[in-house]
Amino acid sequence: MAFSTTVSQRKHIKRKAPRGFLKRVFKRQKPHLRLETSGDLLVHLNCLLFVRRLAEESRMNAFESKCGVIKKEHVQAAAKVILKKSRG
Amino acid sequence: MAEAMAESYNRDSEPTTRTLLRRVLDTADTLTPRRRRSARVRRLSSPTKMNVRRRSHRARSIGRLAHVHTSGNLEEQTPRTLLKNILLTAPESSVMMPESVVKPVPTPQVVQSSRRESSRGSLELQLPELEPPTTLALGLLAPGRRKQRQRLSVFQQGMDQGLPLSQEPRGNGSASSLTSSLNLTFATPLQPQSAQRPGLARRPPTRRAVDVGAFLQDLRDTSLALASPGDSLRTPVATLPTDTVLEDTQPFSQPLIGRSPSVYHSLPCLSHTEAEDAKRAVSHRTQSSGPRLQNHNPGKPTQLLAGKAKKVDALAVSFPNNSSAVSGEDGVEPLQDGVGEEAEERMEESLSVSKVVATTGTQGSVRMEKSKGHREMTEAAEAKEPEGSSGASLELASSTTEFLQARRPQFLEPAPPPSAAVLSSEPLEPLSTRLPPRARTPGPRPRQDPHKTGLSHYVKLFSFYAKMPMEKAALEMVEKCLDKYFQHLCDDLEVFAAHAGRKTVRPEDLELLMRRQGLVNDQVSLHVLVERHLPLEYRQLLIPCAFSGNSVFPAQ
């Protein structure tokens, strides 16, 4: 007995992946390409990891500047580093 | 010895330990009805002559012992009495027969070596009920000199009679511990845990009093979610949507005057009985609290807001549930205004707003701003304007409290256009014409809002991972970063797919991308990351797993 590819409506998944959004973004960017079904889940995983790294980096920046609030500059500096890392 | 053997052979063609025991007991001059029984002896396959010799030898020793204990007092806890009980109670044709045959043989050894009368006594107490285990125990009680031989003989008998070997090794263990454990299990009943460990007692879950309004709204949300599943991507229409079919149950006429348009603007409600009930309930509430609105309303809205805030937090991640957030905020303001009908209608409208995230998000944000501030009865047109300007999805992404303190001027019209399109059952088409046209920029809005609401999902995650308060500018910066990230991602995937000569991006491309990013390396595989960060349902879809029937899902 194999599981179904769809989740029944009653199941409440925590931290759902916005699959429609991801598919739409990909389609908009690359209309000539196609994305597979489980591919967008992996894209979501990638996004999660990216956001996590970004958040940690900006948090570190805020700590270093002894600030209790994350400011735009912290995020910007963090983004530079992390975007470069996740260039692939 | 020869006599014993001859004797045994004379009595039965196939002497068994059971019969030997019987003979022993019979000869020991007791009033037993067992003599009759001995006639009906089960024929078991006779083991080798050596075993017979051994058994006869033991039978003799039993005989010696039998003479020692002349009286068969049951009060005395002796092995003899135990054996008697066994023979009395054990059915001859029982499955446990082999055991009872085997086990009584070692018991003479037990008698010889040591007498643990107390333990036996407790065992004896259980004898009538728990026959086979006690026979086991008796058999296993054999410590002492003849242990090895006894076990060997027993083993051989067991082999010959097809006994499971598991019984034998058990005897190798500490017999005392086994009996003691048996004693424990037999003698001591299971005490209720609560008596010993009060901490383990199950406490009834503490339940909060149910807020009827929140409950009904939740019901409506779920029903709406079921009703219109696929509308999350609809973009809002510039014009006002349909309007209410809500029946006016309110007796208030004055507030209606100033708000008549807004009333009409209220969203269409799927004619749920729940909606009406909620309406009536709210109307009742507001009616009762009519003059003392200020006193009561803070209680209710805060209560509702608390409930809504809870809901909002719970549902903050998923898009379609922004409507509920909206509904929450909606419910708050009108109540405070003391206009019962509006409150209900707002609530219903907001509840009936289903999947159009963008507009509801914007409206919700604006509404939230207003709710804590001063209510103003404004026209729907004015109410709609700030929606477009606010860029609401971003604000919605921030904490709700920020909105509550933000500007508030207009009383937002809770009539998201998409809901009309979404809810086919709305009979409120004509109402839209009544609404004054809202000045809005229809062009870029449909593009931005769903995109922004999608991004807001990740922005919320960012603020969660950061664990620190953030500025709004920082959140906008995060959005820009995400945009850039998605562009990079798509480009990379395109390159990888083209490199593989494909036009479809496959999971292998994704894995290669993560490998190049350094997330996946030889120590950490993709499956590990999937297990760590994705919920179970996605993990099932991604990682192939074998199921029964030689099937693997997902198929490779």
TrEMBL record, chain A:
Coiled coil: none annotated. GO terms for cellular component: kinetochore; nucleoplasm. It holds the Pfam family CENP-W. The keyword Cell division applies. GO terms for biological process: cell division; chromosome segregation; kinetochore assembly; mitotic cell cycle. It is found in: Chromosome, Centromere, Kinetochore; Nucleus. Keywords: Cell cycle, Cell division, Centromere, Chromosome, DNA-binding, Kinetochore, Mitosis, Nucleus. The keyword Transmembrane helix does not apply. GO terms for molecular function: DNA binding; protein heterodimerization activity. Component of the CENPA-NAC (nucleosome-associated) complex, a complex that plays a central role in assembly of kinetochore proteins, mitotic progression and chromosome segregation. The CENPA-NAC complex recruits the CENPA-CAD (nucleosome distal) complex and may be involved in incorporation of newly synthesized CENPA into centromeres. Part of a nucleosome-associated complex that binds specifically to histone H3-containing nucleosomes at the centromere, as opposed to nucleosomes containing CENPA. Belongs to the CENP-W/WIP1 family. Heterodimer with CENPT; this dimer coassembles with CENPS-CENPX heterodimers at centromeres to form the tetrameric CENP-T-W-S-X complex, which is a subcomplex of the large constitutive centromere-associated network (CCAN, also known as the interphase centromere complex or ICEN). Interacts with NPM1. This is Centromere protein W. It comes from Callorhinus ursinus. The gene is CENPW.
Automatic annotation (TrEMBL), chain B:
Residues 100-113, 120-129, 388-401, 420-442 have a biased composition (Low complexity). Residues 367-387 have a biased composition (Basic and acidic residues). One of its GO terms (biological process) is kinetochore assembly. It is found in: Chromosome, Centromere, Kinetochore; Nucleus. Residues 284-297 have a biased composition (Polar residues). Belongs to the CENP-T/CNN1 family. Gene3D superfamilies: Histone, subunit A (1.10.20.10). Component of the CENPA-NAC (nucleosome-associated) complex, a complex that plays a central role in assembly of kinetochore proteins, mitotic progression and chromosome segregation. The CENPA-NAC complex recruits the CENPA-CAD (nucleosome distal) complex and may be involved in incorporation of newly synthesized CENPA into centromeres. Part of a nucleosome-associated complex that binds specifically to histone H3-containing nucleosomes at the centromere, as opposed to nucleosomes containing CENPA. It comes from the Eukaryota. Component of the CENPA-CAD complex, composed of CENPI, CENPK, CENPL, CENPO, CENPP, CENPQ, CENPR and CENPS. The CENPA-CAD complex is probably recruited on centromeres by the CENPA-NAC complex, at least composed of CENPA, CENPC, CENPH, CENPM, CENPN, CENPT and CENPU. Identified in a centromeric complex containing histones H2A, H2B, H3 and H4, and at least CENPA, CENPB, CENPC, CENPT, CENPN, HJURP, SUPT16H, SSRP1 and RSF1. Interacts (via N-terminus) with the NDC80 complex. GO terms for cellular component: kinetochore; nucleus. Keywords: Cell cycle, Cell division, Centromere, Chromosome, DNA-binding, Kinetochore, Mitosis, Nucleus, Phosphoprotein. Residues 5-410 form the Centromere kinetochore component CENP-T N-terminal domain. InterPro entries: CENP-T (IPR028255), CENP-T/H4_C (IPR035425), CENP-T_N (IPR032373), Histone-fold (IPR009072). This is Centromere protein T. Residues 33-59, 100-129, 187-206, 275-303, 321-343, 363-452 are annotated as: Disordered. Its main location: nucleus. GO terms for molecular function: DNA binding; protein heterodimerization activity. Residues 452-546 form the CENP-T/Histone H4 histone fold domain. Coiled coil: none annotated. SUPFAM superfamilies: Histone-fold. Residues 33-43 have a biased composition (Basic residues).
